[in-house]
């Protein structure tokens, strides 16, 4: 496994433009210090509600039970999901957004029952992992992230909910705003997590929703036109994702599994 991961790391690094690294005004250490300041600012809130269960408590209570024949789908994730205007991307669809900016997989696992299972969806679309890599709630290994994915899938399966695992999106450093995000993430970890997710879905009958392949450029980075800050999709980025997500949901709800 170590040899495979090292080989993958070398391959991905070979795709990165050396000139882009040279042009970055911020250093990796400076970016890390900024992230630590942000983490410190969040500490008091997370000490009171680590998983942020209060965010959707009222909305969940007001959401009526799924009607007979309703194909409700919950989108669970971090800021990329939180910022997704599902009603605009999927007009008329009974899709429920349960994204929370900055969240990691341990937080999502803790709120999986109230924010997914209790809502009685037919399927859940999970997009997570990028904040684990940054260490938003503390250092995490890839194996710990993978274990959280598996736990969410097992909870969903036990409650009759179909699982759609989204790949982690690529990132870019083509703009000034993108550099701090890029410097606090390892692109090779994105590739490794996606490799694991694809294999896990194939082995367990889940659907692997491959955003990465549709959004990556020839340098191995996120296409410049799909995100202004290198991480969060803009309107064009969400348009790409919406088409892929809708196709995945239709297949899963029709009983077709796998990619």
Fourth-level CATH superfamily: SGNH hydrolase
The overall pLDDT, averaged over residues, is 89
Beta-strand percentage? 5-15%
Number of domains: 1
Task: Explain this structure.
By secondary structure, the protein is an alpha/beta fold. The protein contains 14 helices and five strands. 51% of the residues lie in helices and 9% in strands. It has a five-stranded parallel sheet. The longest helix is centred in the N-terminal third of the chain and has 21 residues, at 28-48.
Key phrases:
Rossmann fold; five-stranded parallel sheet; 259 residues; 14 helices; 5 strands; disordered N terminus; single chain; alpha/beta
Summarize the structure.
This protein is of the alpha/beta class and 259 residues long.
List the helices and strands and how they pair.
Blueprint: H1 2-13, H2 18-23, H3 28-48, H4 57-62, E1 73-77, H5 79-82, H6 86-89, E2 95-99, H7 105-110, H8 112-115, E3 123-127, H9 130-134, H10 142-158, E4 162-166, H11 179-183, H12 187-204, E5 207-209, H13 211-215, H14 235-253
Parallel strand pairs: 1-2, 1-3, 3-4, 4-5
Helix pairs in contact: 1-12, 10-12
